[in-house]
Amino acid sequence: MTLVDRLAALSSVVELGADRLPDDVLADLRDLDQRAGTRLRLSGEYTVVALAGATGSGKSSLFNAIAGAPLAGVGVRRPTTSATQAIVFGSTGATELLDWLDIQTRQYGDASAAPELSGLVLLDLPDHDSTELSHRAEVDRLVRLVDAFTWVLDPQKYADAILHDEYLRPLAPHREVMVVVLNQCDRLSAPDLAACLRDLDRLLADDGLAGVPVLATSAVTPDGAEPLREFLVATVANHKARTARVSADLDAVAARLIPLVPAGRSEPPLRDAQRRLRAALATAAGIPAVVSAVGRSYERRGLAAVGWPPLRWVSTLRPDPLRRLGLGQLEVEGEVLRRTSLPSASAASRAGVDSAVRSLADTASAGLPAPWPRMLLEAAKARAGTVPDALDRAVGGAHTVTNPSPRWWRLVGAIQWLLLAAAVVGGVWLGLVAVLAYLQIDLDPPTLGPFAWPTVLLVGGLAAGLLLRVLIRPVVAVGAARRRRRTAAELGRRVEAVGEEMVLSPLRAELAVFEQLSAAVRRLSG
Amino acid sequence: MTAAADLVDAVAALGAVLGRTTFPLPAPSAWPAERDRRELAGQLADYLIPRLRSIDAPLLAVVGGSTGAGKSTLVNSLVGDDVSQAGVLRPTTRGPVIVCHPSDLTWFTDDRILPQLPRSSGPDGLGLVPHPGVGPGLALLDAPDIDSVVSTNRELASTLLAAADLWVFLTTAARYADAVPWQLLHTARDRGTAIAIVLNRCPPEAVNDVSAHLSDMLAAGGLGGAPLFVIAEQGLKAGRLRDKATAPIRSWLAALTADAEQRAAVVRYTLDGALHSLPPRTYALAGAADDQYAVRKQLEACVSSAYGGALARVDEAIRDGALLRGEVLARWQDVVGTGEFLRKLESRVGRVRDRVVAAVTGRPTPVEELGEALEAGIETVVRAATEDAAEATYGCWARHQAGAPLLTDELARPGPGLAETVELLVRDWQEFVLELVRTEGASKRSGARLASYGVNGAGLVVMLAVFSQTAGLTGAEIAVAGGTSVAGQKVLEAIFGEQAVRGLARQAREDLLARVDALLREDAARYGDVLGAGSVSGDELRGAADRIARVLR
Known about the structure:
The structure holds two protein chains of two kinds. By secondary structure, chain A is an alpha/beta fold.
């Protein structure tokens, strides 16, 4: 991962993390996003190194020793330095960079006298431990901006808590761009100095800074500042501090982000929870009631359609169970938008849906750290309020619920009419024959075997009609069962679609954001 | 009772109250208050109470200051012997050392002061060195540093400083403007502790400049009256400062020890300062205790409103008959619609036949199905209400500044095993209803019709009645609301109209609600456990402080 990629990942973490990451983390991310971008845009020709440390450790003396001139005021009154000052070694002024760092006191080093330092901007910071709180604020500000740190310690103060607890330990990710200087080493005898350096090494290792170079310097002995100068020359020459600092900043935020957005989480198996949700929604939508009403309505209308015509009115005496639920409006085209009169879901079924949604969100957030389970639950429940309406529409708009009449009913109905017509024709014929016989006009009707045709028509028509009614009844029952099955299947699909739209897709969207965020954090950590 | 004994009693009473005070809830004031409480309690035990009880004990001068300021070197130089180890590694002194005249040793061997420190040399103990180099009536305590990376040193130093009659505060030319020692000096000033300042390791050429600056700073900090001694940076002779450099301090200390009156004045000065600082410091703690109380109340309100709401919701679901819709209604229609209900309930034969059918086909009878549907309905409602309550409490705490740090993942949902507990609850309730029907039946007060259903059938009727019978709402209305058939309506009216059923249903509902309430309380108790028991109230602390203020007046 290049630094540019990592910065891009940081930007997307900032974007996706809004409202999802803790506020303090987010504020730091935004700050770093801006800071790192600006620093990388600004001059790469210069390396900004800060001399930081406690009051009286000799920062200004070292600054003067490197500058080769008494630029910074040195004194015995504590704290001596109150404003940061900078010295620039180089041909161009580094004005823009110093403007960004907001440093007013600027000196320009003699580049020709020290060509090996060309490209260095050395800052003399105020102290971080005196009673002047403004000094500490200035140090805290610049510690975030500079490319490399030189921590100036002295034999009296090298073990101070404030230095280790509040600066060195938190800056452990920046060990690449850090050097620790034990100044005033002229005050110690050689064995004492060695012991002191060993002790300092131990303390630094405790801070997580093992391996950071520790230099012994003195600003009063000739060449006493030489180790620091050599280090600065090397730092400037390899031009890496600027990117290394940003990279270390990114490492630091990545370390904070990883516990919040763990990587490499496998897709949680939602199938069981999804099935439970489907069942709960089906109960809440009253599917069993609707299905049974559809079946009964089918039977009732089917028997009416194929029954013996003169007795059809009998079955319409009982109300259509579907109509009672406000369903089965044949005349309505497409989606039924008005509410059905299905009884509103019972407290138990509503509670069942709530539980199912909760268990779905629980499953989805298994193994995720703190804010995520709540976020996922909120996403899953975001549209829960509209679920009853959506279920109602889903049931009302189902095609099978309108209970269309199958074509064979009309055919059988026509046959019934035909048979009735035959019976009527037979009856009229018989009557005619009887009247003619009464008038002594003998007109033998044609016969079919031993029976006269009119008789065959009358009796056969009636008998066949009733027989058909009896025979067709199981067929209607089979049709009703099939219709029930189809209705159940269609309603199941439609209710599932409601669950998908109202619960699952918001949940999946939030999960997808998590995945993106997790991927961005992975890219960010390099 | 004398005034002195009264004062000792009042101070000891404050110590007892402080010992019981805790600030467990992470309110913004809690952490500083706990630190202050520890300090205050420590000062009472280590200094105030022993000093009040034995006003004649030797004056304890604690030599404190930054790491590397030369505390041990100064003590060694004053005593004229190597009594405490000095060195270049920071921090040097880890275990504190008391140096006193051999005749004063008995004052320090028992646990009159600093009882928590065993009397032994080493990092964990308090070294005791009797040495004639120190005059009688004075003890020098070489304390660890106040500002090094070793946090135990810092804590121990503040404990020791709180036990001092006199601070000999060491600083250096490089240190004298450090923030940490000045904080301690300001504390000492506020508590009226007697202080002497020693500016050590001052470069000879800067003595005037630095000491003038330091005097200005002391005057500006309200410490203008403290004596200031300056010791120039010098090569050490056998690890000790030259006698000439320490002479002013030595003679000042000698004057203190020689003159019993002056010594008593120093002791009195610090003691009075400490005593007068007690009421305001305790009032500050009382404020924090009030905060604790307020935060506890707010968080408890979260719990009680969420769980109270859950009980109300269950109550509502029971009252408005909503439980009877859906599955229960369908089963009810199965039972009534087939006309089986009365037959089944009223005829033993029917029941026996049903049993046989059920045994042969393995299918539950409609009455059993109705009972199960009812049971499942109650279970689901109670479970969802509990889940909602836990979730609402979690959300409420998460929005609260002091509540958020207390949350764990378990608190986002109800306690484990909720499903089983609720199932058991409903079973127990059903048992109760059956038992009720049985006893009421035996007492012959129940209606004839109800009695004719047998215990199981009657129990089911009562349970149904619980959910259909609300204040003024009759079975008929419920039947209309539920959309039952005419036959079902008639049955309901006939059954639920009976006075006996109404009475039983009321008892059964009250019992169910009581059980649900108990369940919810138990679940809510998990949040109470996190909050812990309430601590000492602000008023109690104020009372103890008032008592001291009264005695001092």
